[in-house]
Structure formats: structure tokens, C-alpha cells
Design brief:
The protein is an alpha+beta fold and 308 residues long. The chain is built from ten helices and seven strands. It folds into two domains: 152 residues, Methyltransferase, Cobalt-precorrin-4 Transmethylase, Domain 2, CATH 3.30.950; 135 residues.
Length: 308
């Protein structure tokens, strides 16, 4: 989702929900059509264009569809009712399946109806959230298609391209989740805290993708090498998970040797551990940075949203 949605922005402003407020939001937040924003000009009936825009944002990083707003950001409104918007997004004629989203209301976080100066005309700000499943839209021929975002444009993928796109997206999500889990441990260590009893051991997400086969069916060999050290020719370089376990063992051994009266001390303050702890901290950070470089080198982003 955007850093601030219209609803969040409006909550912090001393003005009521209106066309003037919406235009002020677009100006203040420098919102233009891009990765996370789509304008749809006034229309008498919502149609495939609305479904396509909603599905495309969901299939990227989420964002906002603004119905009744021109490409230039002017709020003209539309005679379409909220009930009709909901009906269009529900796509009740689409065949559901457990591996895809067809009811686009399921990926709609909120719909804000904005009154305009025109009689019986409204604009709508539709907040769209991403999820792991791809969202499909019914086109004008009532065929299910997969719209994906590319900057300020949307393209529709054929069946083969859709399969390839989804596999790539799934791989990126798995790599990002692994990074976040390892980064949590690195943050704990860098804050020099006494590690809690509930520290993940093993790492729950990474352990799960090994046990259910995701690490082998979704990730490539180079990904597994970066994580586990598998397939590295020189046999000396460790993956990020190897460094995690090695560090965890050394820190737990040190904590077990704490002298009486040091039970609540931070790790860095434990007697005789200062230099050793500094080395551990640096090693964990270096391994995390190396894994982050791998993720980016594979063409994936670690930030919550792609550049606009």
C-alpha cells in the first residue's frame, strides 16, 4: 500500500471528505499514475477497466484505483453507485479456484466514496492490497485474464506468460521472507540485547520451506547456495542460515556460562565476551548484506514497493 492512503491522509487533515480534499491529497502526496496509482475517468457504468486496474495493482504491490478522476488528476465524479462498484469487483460470473482470486472485493481493503459538486456524482478511492495469490479479471468477452502492472501501464498476460510471471513472483516472495526472518535476528544482535528464550531455533519460516519442499521447488540452486551454502564450489563460504546457526550456538554457549549476578546483562556486557561478540555481530551483518545482494542481483526488490 502507499505510504499514506487517501483515507489515512484525510484523517490527519482539518478538512472533510470532498472532491477538493481528494485533489489536495493528490497534489500534496505528488500522486500520479504509476506502480501504485490508477486513475479512471468518469463513466456511466464500471466495466472491465475497473476490474483490470484493481487486479493489476493487487498483482504488483497494491495501491489505489481512483474512479471518477481524469488522467490529469481532476476529480469529475461518476453517477455510478457504490453498490454497482461492489458488484463489478465481485465478478460473480467468474469461476472461483483455490489458487487464484476472482472476487476482487477480497483484495480491496477499503472503498471511500467522495462526494462531488455534481448532483448524484461521486468519486471512489479503492484501496487495493497485495497477496500471494494472483488476481484475475473478467474481460469484455467474459474470459479470465491476468493483468500485471508495468509502471503506469497495465499489460495482460497469456497463459504461458502468466505461469512464468507467477513462478517468478513466488520466488521473490520466498526470498524476501527469508531475508526478513534473518534480518530480525541480526537486529536483535545489533541492539546488544540478552536473547529471549523464544528466539526462533530453528528459523520457523526457513524451516517450513525446507520441510514442505518450497526451498527445492520454488528457489533455484543459486538461492539455496546463498541461504545454506549448498553448491558453493570452494566449500568454504557459508550461507546466511549457516552463519545464523553458528552464531546462535556461540551466543547460547556464552549465555550458559554467565556468572552469578550477570543474568540480566546485555550480551555485549558479559565479562570476557566484548571482542568475541563484536566479531559475531559483524559476521551476521556481513552474511545478511551478502544475501541481500544476491536477492537484488536476481532482479528482486527488498523494499515494500517498486520505484514509481
Amino acid at each position: 500500500m502507499p505510504v499514506r492512503s487517501y483515507r489515512e491522509w484525510l484523517h490527519g487533515e482539518p478538512q472533510e471528505n470532498s472532491a477538493v480534499a481528494l485533489e489536495a491529497y493528490l497534489s500534496a502526496e505528488a500522486r500520479a499514475e504509476g506502480w501504485m496509482t490508477e486513475f479512471k475517468a468518469a463513466a456511466r457504468e464500471p466495466d472491465y477497466a475497473l476490474r483490470e486496474a484493481t487486479a493489476a495493482l493487487h498483482n504488483a504491490q497494491g495501491g489505489e484505483v481512483l474512479l471518477g478522476v481524469t488522467d490529469g488528476g481532476r476529480v469529475e465524479g461518476s453517477p455510478v453507485t457504490l453498490e454497482r462498484v461492489n458488484e463489478t469487483l465481485r465478478q460473480s460470473r467468474a469461476s472461483p479456484a483455490p489458487w487464484r482470486v476472482t472476487d476482487l472485493l477480497q483484495v480491496t481493503a477499503n472503498i471511500t466514496r467522495v462526494p462531488t459538486s455534481g448532483e448524484q456524482r461521486w468519486a471512489y478511492v479503492i484501496e487495493v492490497r497485495p497477496s500471494d495469490l494472483p488476481a484475475f479479471a473478467l474481460d469484455s468477452s467474459e474470459r479470465l485474464v491476468l493483468p500485471v502492472r508495468s509502471g503506469s501501464d497495465t499489460r495482460v498476460l497469456d497463459a504461458a506468460a502468466a505461469v512464468e510471471w507467477y513462478a517468478l513472483r513466488r520466488r521473490g516472495e520466498v526470498l524476501r521472507s527469508c531475508y526478513r526472518e534473518l534480518a530480525t535476528f541480526s537486529t536483535q544482535l545489533s541492539q546488544h540485547r540478552s536473547l529471549p528464550e523464544g528466539l526462533p531455533d530453528p528459523l520457523p519460516y526457513i524451516q517450513a520451506i525446507v520441510e514442505d519442499g518450497t526451498a527445492y521447488t520454488v528457489l533455484k540452486q543459486v538461492d539455496r547456495a546463498a541461504l545454506f551454502g549448498a553448491g558453493i564450489t570452494n566449500g568454504r563460504t557459508s550461507g546466511a542460515v549457516d552463519v545464523y546457526y553458528r552464531t546462535l550456538r556461540r551466543v547460547k554457549d556464552a549465555l550458559a556460562r554467565r556468572e552469578e549476578g550477570w543474568a540480566g546483562a546485555a550480551i555485549r556486557d558479559l565479562r570476557g565476551l566484548g571482542q568475541d561478540f563484536g566479531n559475531l555481530e559483524a559476521e551476521v551483518r556481513q552474511s545478511l548484506d551478502a544475501f541481500a545482494r544476491h536477492v537484488r542481483d536476481q532482479g528482486f526488490i527488498l523494499e515494500p514497493a517498486p520505484p514509481g
